[in-house]
Every structure is written in structure tokens, then in C-alpha cells.
Specification:
It is a single chain. By secondary structure, the chain is an alpha/beta fold. The chain is 38% helix and 20% strand. It contains 15 helices and 21 strands.
Length: 493
């Protein structure tokens, strides 16, 4: 990362093994959300830059795909090792560029290397099948990489998602064009510097910029046949449209969530309250697609759990995210802050009861920056905006229900279906509810955690496809069927 003018950082794009500015010569500003101070700049990538990156990836692909799988795995593991060598540097940049607390971001940086290693270990698992389709011949399938893969990632876990975006496609034999988030792009440019050192030229390309034009150009490019996006439902739909207009493509989407935590009356209120607050991911300001932002409490639990939740939320310590004692930092950007504030205002105007937060914290430390106190609304009903729309911020909505049917109606009442948490000590109730809830990733008596090898993804408008396991790796390959005619040669009309 180069330094210029008052120690501001200037990141470059990685295209064809070279660190380059945009062809248009323009730059995007990256801002510290805690202070609104400029941290640095990255290139304002254009469609022409995307075209250059795709061409570089296409040129690099034949040699990369032909490399022995174990050699690809060695290079991906070397990338993980080099990333770990720069942990402290990347961590500090990631915290000030996102606003996420340093204690949680340590795990993110570690996860980046771990995911690369995890998929490197899968390099012999890209298997086809033999099929007994006839008695005298051999019928089998093989898996081949797509070629050039486009990955577009969000702002909440930039370095973690950037590494995730590379791991499976590279091991499967693809080359990658990656677009980092425009509001927190600095760590991805640092990753680009590492990739330039470790990976063959053109295998990894990183184009910074806005969704329009850079992300749109990746989705539309006719030679990018495989695209994966993580972000909001509206942007996911736009990518689907752009991809379809550019060609016939394999698109996977990991989109938003309005995730329910359903607590049955046999649970301890202290446990439910503790996990409900933890599941909201306040250390990321609630900016997590898996956050359990809808707390659905049986009427017998409603008051005792609500009281404990409010107490816990009010005790959360907002501070400089570089402070090890900080439990919540600022919202990621001005634009997103304004949207979250507008959602809080809608909750008040719609008649929900504001129990905690909802305003900028007091004191000189919070005079600038995108700060909002962690917020809890009670007496929420399904007709309110805060009940239906993903806020992607530190706002927890609490609902009351009387019977299991009502609980399931509430749980399934939104367009989303990403995660759900079910709290009960009754095994039959737990499994019955898990099958009835229309979500793709469910915890029973838990929340928020991810586990390597288990497929993560959503139902309904929360997405298409699965990540974090063998399913993701195989999704970066195409199946080819081969028939070896060992018996009498025949031709079928």
C-alpha cells in the first residue's frame, strides 16, 4: 500500500499481474466511518478496466487449469501464509475502513487464511462419477472449470469475503475477477499486492469501483460465465438482469436476511436474552446478513426476555473500533447510516415502542462519524417496515406470539429466508419447527455461528446456491459426460 499526501493510503487495482490505476484516471475516496476522515483512495474502475481484467484472466486460464491440482493447492496455501504474515497491518486497515470492532475483525482476518487453506485441502475432491448406463460400455463424467469467474463482495467483511471469493474458484481451476466494496476497499487492494507476489499473472484480478459501472460490467461480460454476488436483494436482482442480458450464465446470490429467533416458553429467559443480543452481531453494528433481527417471543417469555435484552443492549460499549474494549463501532458509511436512521424513524412513526437506542450517542467522541446507539423496538407487528425490510443495522425488533402456528406465520412472513434460530428444550418441537421455517441455515439453541463444511445460503429472496462447503467448490465446475463405446459400435438416431 503506497503512502501519499499526509499519510493517506493509495491502493491500486491488480490486472494481469500489475498494480495499476483506472484507465479513466479517477479515484474513489475511502472514509473512516468513526471520524469521517479520509483514509485513502482507490481507482474508480470502469468497464474498460473490467474488460482488461477479463482478458488477462482468459489469457492466464489455460496454464492455470492445466496445472496439477496439488500445485494449485500449494499456491493457494502460500497465499494464505503470506496473508497471515501481514495480519497486523491488514487488521488495522480493515477496522478503520469498516468501523467493525477489532476483537471481531481479528477473527475475520484469521478466517481469510483459514478459508484458503480449507479449500486447498479439497483439491482432490473435484470428482466425476461412473454410471452403469449400459453393460458393455463405459459412461462417466468429469468436472471442468468455467474459465473466468466474477465475484462481487459487500462491505461488512471485506478481507474475509475477498479470500472466500478466491478460494473455491481457484482450487477448481478458474481465474477470478473480483470487485471489492466501494466503501471499504482498502484491504482488498492489500490482498492484491499479496496476490501479485504469489499468484501467476492474470489468475487473480481485482477491480475497485462502484457497482455501476464496474460490477455491472462484470455481470454483463459475455466471457464471464460464472458469477457470485453477496449483498442486497435489489442489487442481486440487478445482477441477474445484467447477467442474463450478457449471456447464459451460472449466477449464485447470497442476499439479505430478516432472520427470526423463535423462543418457546420452556426456555430460560436469561439464555434467550443473551443469545438474542449476541445473534444481532452488534460488534458489526448489526451489519450482517445472518443477524437474528426479529426476536419472536412466546407471550410467557415476552416481558422477562425483553427486560433482559434491553438491559444488555443499553450496557453495550460504543467506542473507537480500534479499542479492544469496544463492543460496537460506527455504521459503515454515510449513505447507509442515513438509511438505518430512516428505518428507525419509520418504526417510531408506525407505532413500535422504542425501548433502547435510536439516536446518536452523546459526547464529543461521537460528534462526528456514523454513530447510532444499538436499538430495540418492542410491540412490533408484521405490517411495519421494520418488521418486513432488512435494515442491516443495529436494530432489533421484538414480537409476541401465543401459539406455534402464529410463531411460524411470523417467522415466514417476509420475502427473506436466510437463517433462523429456534430455542426450545423439546426435541420434537425443535425439529418440527426447523422443517416448517422457510430458511436455509438454521440453529437449534444457538445463533450466528458458521461451521466449515456446512452449506450456507438462503431460501426465497435470500438467494441461490450454497457456500462454505463442497457444494461451493463444485459450483465452480461444469459437468461433462463421456461415453466410451467398448462393445459393438452403434449410432442412435
Amino acid at each position: 500500500m503506497n503512502v501519499h499526501q499526509s499519510n493517506l493510503m493509495r491502493g491500486m487495482m491488480l490486472i494481469g499481474g500489475e498494480l495499476v490505476p483506472s484507465e479513466g484516471g479517477e479515484w474513489l475516496e475511502s472514509v473512516n466511518p468513526a471520524t469521517e476522515e479520509t483514509l485513502g483512495h482507490v481507482p474508480h474502475g470502469t468497464a474498460a478496466d473490467v474488460n482488461r481484467a477479463v482478458a488477462a484472466a482468459e489469457a492466464a486460464h489455460p496454464a492455470w487449469a492445466a496445472l496439477e491440482p496439488k500445485e494449485r493447492a500449494k499456491l493457494v496455501k502460500k497465499l494464505a501464509a503470506k496473508l497471515r504474515e501481514k495480519t497486523d497491518e491488514i487488521l488495522r486497515v480493515e477496522v478503520v475502513d469498516t468501523g467493525n470492532t477489532i476483537t471481531k475483525m481479528r477473527a475475520d482476518v484469521a478466517s481469510a487464511g483459514d478459508t484458503l487453506d480449507f479449500y486447498a485441502g479439497f483439491h482432490t475432491e473435484i470428482k466425476g462419477e461412473t454410471i452403469p448406463a449400459s453393460s458393455k460400455n463405459l459412461h462417466f463424467t468429469i468436472r471442468e472449470p468455467y474459465g473466468v469467474v466474477g465475484r462481487i463482495i459487500p462491505f461488512n467483511h471485506p478481507i474475509k469475503f475477498a479470500a472466500n471469493a478466491l478460494a473455491a474458484p481457484l482450487i477448481a481451476g478458474n481465474c477470478v475477477v473480483l470487485k471489492p466494496p466501494e466503501t471499504s476497499p482498502l484491504s482488498a487492494t492489500m490482498l492484491g499486492e499479496i496476490c501479485r507476489e504469489v499468484m501467476p499473472a492474470g489468475v487473480v484480478n481485482i477491480v475497485t469501483g462502484l457497482g455501476l459501472p464496474a460490477g455491472d460490467a462484470i455481470a454483463r461480460h459475455p466471457n464471464v460465465k460464472r458469477i457470485a454476488f453477496t449483498g442486497s436483494v435489489p442489487t442481486g436482482r440487478a445482477i441477474q438482469r445484467a447477467a442474463a442480458e450478457g449471456g447464459i450464465k451460472h449466477v449464485t446470490l447470497e442476499l439479505g436476511g430478516k432472520n427470526p429467533l423463535i423462543a418457546f416458553p420452556d426456555m430460560d429467559p436469561d439464555i434467550v436474552a443473551k443469545i438474542a443480543v449476541a445473534g444481532m452481531n452488534f460488534a458489526w453494528q448489526g451489519q450482517s446478513c445472518g443477524s437474528t433481527s426479529r426476536l419472536l417471543l412466546h407471550e410467557d417469555l415476552y416481558r422477562p426476555v425483553l427486560e433482559r435484552v434491553v438491559e444488555r443492549v443499553k450496557s453495550l460499549r460504543l467506542a473507537d473500533p480500534l479499542d479492544d474494549n469496544a463492543q460496537m463501532g460506527p455504521i459503515n458509511s454515510k449513505r447507509h447510516y442515513e438509511r438505518v436512521v430512516s428505518m428507525v424513524q419509520s418504526g417510531v412513526s408506525d407505532g413500535a415502542k422504542l425501548m433502547a437506542g435510536g439516536k446518536r450517542p452523546g459526547g464529543s467522541d461521537f460528534a462526528r462519524g456514523y454513530w447510532l446507539e444499538p436499538t430495540v423496538f418492542a410491540d412490533v407487528n408484521p405490517g411495519m417496515r421494520i418488521a418486513r425490510e432488512e435494515i442491516f443495522g443495529p436494530v432489533l425488533s421484538v414480537f409476541r406470539w401465543k401459539d406455534e402456528k402464529e410463531a411460524l406465520q411470523l417467522a415466514n412472513s417476509t420475502e427473506y429466508g436466510l437463517t433462523a434460530s429456534i430455542f426450545t428444550n423439546d426435541l420434537k418441537t425443535a425439529f418440527r419447527t426447523a422443517k416448517a421455517v422457510k430458511s436455509g441455515y438454521i440453529w437449534i439453541n444457538g445463533a450466528s455461528g458458521h461451521f466449515y463444511g456446512t452449506p450456507f445460503g438462503g431460501l426465497k429472496n435470500s438467494g441461490l446456491g450454497r457456500e462454505e462447503g463442497i457444494d461451493e467448490l463444485l459450483s465452480y465446475t461444469e459437468v461433462k459426460t463421456i461415453h466410451v463405446m467398448l462393445g459393438e459400435i452403434q449410432a442412435r438416431d
